[in-house]
Amino acid sequence: MKIISKVDLLKQAVREAREKQLSVGLVPTMGALHEGHKSLVERARRENDVVVVSVFLNPTQFNNADDLRTYPRTAEADAALLEACGVDIAFMPSVEDIYPEPDTRVFHLGPVAEVMEGAMRPGHFNGVCQIVSKLFMMVEPDRAYFGEKDFQQIAVIRAMIKQLGFNLEIVQCPCVREADGLAKSSRNVRLTPVVRRVAPAIYRTLKESLNFAADHTLQQTHDWVVATINAYPEMDVEYFSICDGTTLQPLENWEDSEYVVGCITVYCGDVREIDNITYKK
């Protein structure tokens, strides 16, 4: 595995692969890699001749300085995991490598980026589009791999691709969970033991809501999920949106869409956890 930190060396390595008519898959990450990232890398390995994984904690997508400061940094362990997975190129640049000059681009991605995380974390998706578009321009991959836990992020990246005219396939991969159902996340290491024990109630409640929804209205289901999770003193729902799975706009009735997804964000202590469930597709 090549570990590359410089953009020009990354482009050169990809160019050499292209000269050999090899397909290229990209897995963008922010490091602190876990089994969820590993599943993305393994799928990319199966579907491409060359696998590039970026490990870069992107500062422009953090609207909370404390969140950036406390985000886990495990570069040595990340490199070991990627090598074990058979990655060809680990791109591990510095902030200066990615942003030699400030990126002043502003993306106008429409309603899909304005709800949920877009409303709660101003500037977050603009930062996501800055880094992901840069990686797409550097690597020019055939496919890029993203996990469904970040459901809204995938929709935003699809909108960005359409806007900028990138020619690649976005591969949406299933969320990987702990044995007790908690969605794997780099932030999980920050959960206190007490909070870690109750956090699986997020997904458990979402799953139970599938049965609840069968004979309750959309609003009743929404309220039941929020009340059930908020009954735990250690947790506080920031939002729960039952929305159209394509546009991400909130729905009033189950019949208003053929593709219905529930997206939730919960503060578990001071750690912000996101998850989602599909009600209808």
Tell the overall outline: globular
CATH superfamily membership of the largest domain: HUPs
End-to-end gap:
40 Å
Please state roughly what percent of the residues sit in beta strands, choosing from under 5%, 5-15%, 15-25%, 25-35%, 35-45% or over 45%: 15-25%
CATH topology of the largest domain: Rossmann fold
**Radius of gyration using CA atoms only:** 19 Å
Name of the CATH class of the largest domain: Alpha Beta
When the domains are counted, the total is 2
- The CATH architecture of the largest domain can be named as 3-Layer(aba) Sandwich
- Give, in spatial order, the strands making up the sheet with the most strands: 1-4-3-2-5-6
The averaged pLDDT comes out at 97
Helix content: 25-40%
Q: Name the helix and strand elements from N-terminus to C-terminus, one letter apiece.
A: EHEHEHHEHHHEHEHHHEEE
How many helices does DSSP assign?
11
What is the structural class? alpha/beta
Query: Mind describing the biggest β-sheet?
Result: 6 strands, parallel
Could you tell me the number of beta strands?
A: 9
Low-confidence stretches: none
